Amino acid sequence: MSTVSLWNLALSPNKRICLSPLSWRPSFPSHAMFPRRQNTKTVVVLVRMLDSKPTVLVAEKLGDAGIQLLKTFANVDCSYNLSPEELCTKISLCDALIVRSGTKVTREVFESSMGRLKVVGRAGVGIDNVDLSAATEHGCLVVNAPTANTIAAAEHGIALLTAMARNVSQADASMKAGKWQRNKYVGVSLVGKTLAVMGFGKVGSEVARRAKGLGMNVIAHDPYAPADRARAVGVELVNFEEALLTADFISMHMPLTPATSKMFNDEAFSRVKRGVRIVNVARGGVIDEEALLRALDSGIVAQAALDVFTEEPPPKENKLVRHENVTVTPHLGASTTEAQEVVALEIAEAVVGALKGELAATAVNAPMVPPQVMSELAPFVSLTEKLGRLALQLVAGGSGVKFVKVTYASARGRDDLDTRLLRAMITKGLIEPISSVFVNLVNADFTAKQRGLRLTEERIVLDGSPENPLEFIQVQIANVESKFASAISESGEITVEGRVKDGKPHLTKVGSFDVDVSLEGGLILCRQIDQPGIIGSVGSILGEENVNVNFMSVGRIAPRKQAVMTIGVDEEPSRDALKKIGEIPAVEEFVFLKL
Ligand SMILES: NC(=O)C1=CN([C@@H]2O[C@H](COP(=O)(O)OP(=O)(O)OC[C@H]3O[C@@H](n4cnc5c(N)ncnc54)[C@H](O)[C@@H]3O)[C@@H](O)[C@H]2O)C=CC1
Ligand SMILES: O=C(O)C(=O)COP(=O)(O)O
């Protein structure tokens, strides 16, 4: 397989949609197959069924180049200003959703999509308007366009900084009102002043660079920023306290997270230099707006320039917006013609790629697996899912699966093998057959945790050539009984082991018995006393039923002792045939497993 599809590998064929890297192949929701109402509704549904393209809902203004790119692959529905209810109604007909900062993609949106929504594209950086936990729980990938508007946001930060310092917007409003107030609007200089950049990421560091060009002394507070990045810009990293104590200007550039929410509150304002000036192009929520108002009224904060607000648009009577010492813009940080063109293209590419099943370089809620790793692991992806399914079917009814150990044997070094994808597929094999959730790379760990499944991983480092990423993979389920006692290894766990042979997944061990059967179709596992004629007896029972045997192997402890026979079959044998196999005198136990 040259191109590997994340979704193809990750979605089971009986789930609602199935994506291929080459073409879009929808399968249909049950309500589309069985429309309750007739006439016009039926026609609409049938048209939808015949339409092979996915549907992308663009819920906020997106640059034209992005829309055109989306149209080459999908039906594009540009519906702006939807109410939350309208969004929830529409979403069940959409495979992807593209938003900016003005749309709240809540848990209700994911629930309303009933599993159809596969990708949310955030045409910008901040993803605080997307409920990431809900997206992950629903297996929905979230992608953003993290770099395209960096310069626009930084330039807007500088625009607000300079406009605020020189009272540009107030003076402009005054002149438009027919006044000429030269004394009232005397500003402050920037040169030689200390600017504290809070959040030294992409935007923060560009603001710092520009502020240095204006002759400012720039410090930054960011607990996660590498020191060399700060050194490269000539900025000193300081702690929160020091930033508050020394700054003449403070500029916000951190994301809105539980840790940064209301980071600037009464307590913080009680420690700043009196007369500090504040710029916020990050998110309204990083400042306690009531506290800022108090600080402005008491003169602790001399001025503020705000592009973002806790509630957007802010209510008409918002006192901060109307405050004389506050300069405001309606969330314009990313809004330049240039930035929006690139943002639109970036997000359209990311969404189309994700719908095709390609890896998203800007995935926000999924581990990144580089394409070469993905393609190398492709045959093992199939093997791991099948081993998970087999191990699960070997568990006796009533035994809950809680403890699963996966062992990867490879000649590669420990850090040279990325097993996240394989772990996700084992989880899929263990969970999907017994639940209604679909499991993919996005939600596998979450789903396992939620169901109380503890999956531990172990590595065996083998000698030999590291060319092949893996020699074998073993899946063990502990603390359960098996419906096929021979599947329990000497150490007491249900054990199945497999390898990839000629690009195809093979089962190579069950319990303590070596076997060898290609993992396709169905599988009969049968333990018997090793003696002549057994293979023939089983073969003829299956032959009478027209069940095609595609593979057969016998693993035995010693001649004429116990043996485990594995028989790969293309069709599922009838109950009667299975009963007849069980009645062969030498057969001690057997089980039929579906792959
Ligand atoms: N007004 C607008 O139109 C725009 C606003 N933004 C906002 O700016 C934010 C930053 O964007 P980028 O620089 O591209 O993101 P980024 O991820 O490159 O930078 C964010 C930085 O904040 C730091 N940070 C995290 N927690 C922190 C904390 N508790 N204290 C201090 N620093 C902390 C991170 O370590 C990181 O270095 C976005 O999250 C978004 O909310 C971004 C673009 C446009
Ligand atoms: O990219 C961001 O984080 C922004 O805040 C830009 O928001 P917007 O896309 O202009 O609604």
Automatic annotation (TrEMBL):
Pathway: Amino-acid biosynthesis; L-serine biosynthesis; L-serine from 3-phospho-D-glycerate: step 1/3. Coiled coil: none annotated. Residues 523-595 form the ACT domain. One of its GO terms (cellular component) is chloroplast stroma. PROSITE patterns: ACT, D_2_HYDROXYACID_DH_1, D_2_HYDROXYACID_DH_3. InterPro entries: ACT-like_dom_sf, ACT_dom, ASB_dom_sf, D-isomer_2_OHA_DH_cat_dom, D-isomer_DH_CS, D-isomer_DH_CS1, D-isomer_DH_NAD-bd, NAD(P)-bd_dom_sf. Pfam families: 2-Hacid_dh, 2-Hacid_dh_C, ACT, PGDH_inter. It is found in: Plastid, Chloroplast. Its EC number is 1.1.1.95. It catalyses: (2R)-3-phosphoglycerate + NAD(+) = 3-phosphooxypyruvate + NADH + H(+). GO terms for molecular function: NAD binding; phosphoglycerate dehydrogenase activity. The keyword Metal-binding does not apply. The keyword Oxidoreductase applies. CDD domains: ACT_3PGDH-xct (cd04902), PGDH_4 (cd12173). Keywords: Amino-acid biosynthesis, Chloroplast, NAD, Oxidoreductase, Plastid, Serine biosynthesis, Transit peptide. It is an enzyme of class 1 (oxidoreductase). One of its GO terms (biological process) is L-serine biosynthetic process. It comes from the Eukaryota. Belongs to the D-isomer specific 2-hydroxyacid dehydrogenase family. This is D-3-phosphoglycerate dehydrogenase. It comes from Durio zibethinus (Durian).
